[in-house]
Structures are given as C-alpha cells and as structure tokens.
Amino acid sequence: MSTSQGGSPTFGKGEPDTVMGKNMLAVNPKGPLVICISNVIIDPQAGVISTGRVFSGTIRKGDTLNLVGAEKTAKAQQVSIYMGAYREIVDEIPAGNIVALMGLSEARAGETIVGPELLGIATPFESIKYVSDPVLTVAVEPKKPTDLPKLIDAMQKMSIQDPNLVTTINQETGEYLLSGMGELHLEIAVKDLKSMHHLDIIQTEPMVVYREAIRQEAGPFMGKSPNKHNRVFFQFTPLDPKIIELIRAGELSEIVSASRREDILKTEMGWTTRQARRVFDVNENANLLIDSTVGIQGLREVKQHIRSGFQWALNEGPIAGERVRGVLIDMVDIKLHEDPVHRGPAQMLPAVRQALYAGILSANPTLLEPISLIQVRVPTAEMGNVTGLLSKKRGSIRSVDQEGPVVNVQGFLPVAESLGLSQEMRSATSGTAFWQMTFDHYSPVPDSMLLDIIKKTRTRKGMKPDPPRASEYIVRE
Fold first, then answer.
1. Strand, coil or helix: what is 236?
2. What is the sign, positive or negative, of the torsion defined by CA atoms of 318, 181, 106, 66?
C-alpha cells in the first residue's frame, strides 16, 4: 500500500473504493482475506515458507486460499508469526500483521492471496520487478546421472529463494541452465548446488544471454494452420523504446487491467482510446500484440490460442532460439474455419508461430547484447590504464570525475567483454582499482560479429549452425 500526493492510499493497480479496497484501507480483521506475499524461502524441515502482510481479514490454519497470479488454490497447513528470527505457530493472524504460511508451494514473491469471497474479482498487487535482467548463463549437469532428479529439485528450490536466478530446463537440448546477474552471482549459485545440496556437478563457462530484435517494418505475413483451414496475418514494427521501458517497469503487463492499460498508453504515449483498446497481449520481454481486425466470427474462441502462440514463438525466437525483444505485432486479419473442432490449439499455435517467424526473419533481424554500466574508482596515475582497458574491450567512457587523489570513471561495457575482467583490472592497475558493474541496457551486436555469435549460440543448443531463411516460413494463399 502507498499514499498518493493528495493523501489517498492506493493499492498497486487496484481501486480503493471497491469492497477489497475499503477493507484494506480499514485494515479490517473481519473483512475478506487479502495477503501480499513478499518473500519465499525453503526451510529444510518445513519446506516452502511464504511470508507476507495480511491487509484484510484473518488467516487461520486450514483456510482455503486462492493464489491470484498463479491461478491455484491451496490450504494453509500452518500459520506462524515471526518473533525475531524464529517462527511461532499460532491459530490465527488478523489484518495488519506479518504472517508466515506453510503449504503454498506455488506462491512466489509478489503473489496476491485472497479468500473465497474475492475469487475472480480481486485485483492483484503489482508484481515485484527487479532492476536487472539475467545476463549470463551456465549449463550444469551432475557427474552421476542418478543425481539428475536431485539437481532438478535443487534448481527449482534455488529459483524460489532467489528470484534474480532464472533456472531453465530445455527439454529439446537437454540443457540445465542457471541464468544470473553476473559471474559472481553464478559462482555463488553453483557453489550452493555443490555444498548445500551435496551435488557433484560439471559446469560450462559462462555464456552471454542475448535477445533477438528487428530493425525495420515488415509484413503482413501469413501463418497457415496444419489442416489448411485457418489463416492469420501479422504486421511487424520495432516497438517504441518508451513502451519497452513501460513493460520492463511493470506498468504494462498481462495482469494490468484493460482500463489501466488504456490510461497509461493515452497518458504516456498519446494513443487514442481506440488505439489503446486494440492491445491484445503483452509479452514480458517487451513485445506487444495488437488486434486490428473487425467483426471476425469465432475470434473470441481462439483468442487464448493466439496469445499462447504469441508467447511461445517470442520466448524462443527464430534466429538463435533466444527471447525476442522490442517488437510491435499487429494482427491485421484472420480467417477461421466455421467448425470449432478445426481451430483448436493444435491448429492455431503453429499458424501463429509460422507468421511470427516469417515476419521477424524478414524485418532485418539482429541480436541484442547486454551492456553493463561500469564504475571504477582508481588513483589518478592509473586512470589511463583503466580507460585503455575499457577501450580494448569495446567499452565507452561516460564520465571521469576527479576526487582528490582518485578519479571515478564511469562507462559502458558489453557483458561478453566483462568475462575475466577481474584479473585484467587487477593487473592493469596493480590492484588499486575498486569497481562494480550493473546491467544497464541492450545494444545491437556489431554486424561484424553477428553471424559468428548466432552460429555459436545455435550450435551450443544443438541446432543447425546457420539460421533459417524467411522463405522457409513464408506461405502463400
């Protein structure tokens, strides 16, 4: 809960004058149950412990709880309150207190939990957004194949406790991936796998996490269902950087209400009401799907299939199997078979994917690489060595500020060039430099390096080295 400039409390994307909002304002212990989960840990004895604030109502052991974001139902197996670092089991906890719940295996930080009376009408709290994106990945595997189930379980537990650590199991390539904020983050994660979970594992060298993008408009391109009875047409445009930032900040997402989304697009982007209402879906990697069709019979029944195809295709792009970023996709037409049996997910998802791949590959595609903001504090005499090292690694200098006998150097450095930087920085400055890096933005990979990176990435994933051509996905009526 926060307070606006006028003194009116607000609740993320919710409204204070609703039943839910009024009871939260009053911190009413007799109102409908509303809890926001802020932290999730794995206790060696108790399992998953979800901690959050009770904004309304009273939570009791055995209560049936609805997880709004996860769309799951669970029972409160145990209700506890924190006494310092320890949890004390209690019968109930009223509004205004912090609760620790056992039994919510699907809960994650930012989850909204409500009682049965608010099921289907509750507006979720804003999801927790993290400043950095994962920029490096390592693949891990157990030395003993029999430890594979143990590794999978450990990776799942680690991702619950550390939301900045992304764990992925690629069923097609057989890769078990840990993605994190940098080399140190991944070193700690791998160390935890070995020490805390008692696993003997093999790991690869860190690999950069890229994004796929387009550089020009293209389309419309058609996707045809396997049974040839359905067709979908998409137009492609690079997405406005302002909208990319709105999605990255969580202002625009799949859980934001349509009315709130319209207000943001009209206020921040100058869109008309008609334009804003055309938004069909939002992909968390900063892609937007809009619907320009009019009067299509049967569209309502296939909307979810189109959304699923949109998410599926953009989470594994055609160039190198990386996530797609910054594309505005406009569904300009769709032709559906009159019989619902012939327009199910098995037909619509491949059609959507085919059209999306054709458009991306036709729109002068490229890869985006993560760029870090680097800050180095070093004696004045060593400044030249620092700037020289950054320049050698495709870095750029943003500012140099003198503070007595030391200088603060700020610049940008591709994450790919930061691997092994610690040793080089110590060597160049005789160990006198203090420095840190944080993810800042994505930038197109230089054309001279693009094809080589694509081939290496595809080969690592077990794909053919050469990327597909647009003609492989373009179909005609």
1. strand
2. negative
Across the chain, what does the average pLDDT equal?
89
Using one digit for the tens of pLDDT, what is the confidence trace for 107-126? 888 888 998 888 766 666 65
The set of residues, in sequence order, having a beta carbon less than 8 Å from that of 174 and lying 6+ positions away, is 462
Look up the domain containing 81 and give its range. Answer: 2-118
Task: For residue 355, give the CATH number of its domain.
Answer: 3.30.230.10
Q: Which residues of 47-57 are buried (b: 16+ CB within 10 A; e: fewer)?
A: ebbbbbebbbb
Chain position carrying tokens 């670092």:
85
Peptide bond into 370 cis (omega under 30): no
Contact 208, 460 (CB under 8 A): no
Q: Helix axis angle, 299-314 relative to 345-362, nearest 10°?
A: 50
Q: Give CA separation, 212 vs 444, 447, 465, in Å.
A: 9, 14, 16
The model's pTM:
0.80
DSSP conformation letters of 374-439: EEEEEEGGGHHHHHHHHHHTT-EEEEEEEETTEEEEEEEEEGGG-TTHHHHHHHHHTT--EEEEEE
**What residues contact residue 322 under an 8 Å CB cut-off, 6+ apart?**
209, 210, 211, 212, 316, 367, 457
Query: Predicted confidence band at 257 (pLDDT cuts at 50, 70, 90)?
Result: confident
* pLDDT per residue as tens digits for the range 218-250: 989 999 999 999 999 999 999 999 999 999 888
d(CA 168, CA 79): 32
Please indicate, yes or no, whether residues 194 and 229 belong to a single structural domain of this protein: no
| Residue 263 and residue 323 in one domain | yes
* Residue that is last in its domain, among 209, 225, 259: 209
Looking up tokens 């320049």 gives 391
Assigned token pair, 419: 């691997």
Q: Beta strand pairing status for 72-75 and 136-142?
A: unpaired
CA distance 461 to 89: 48
At residue 177, what are phi and psi to the nearest 5 degrees? -110, 140
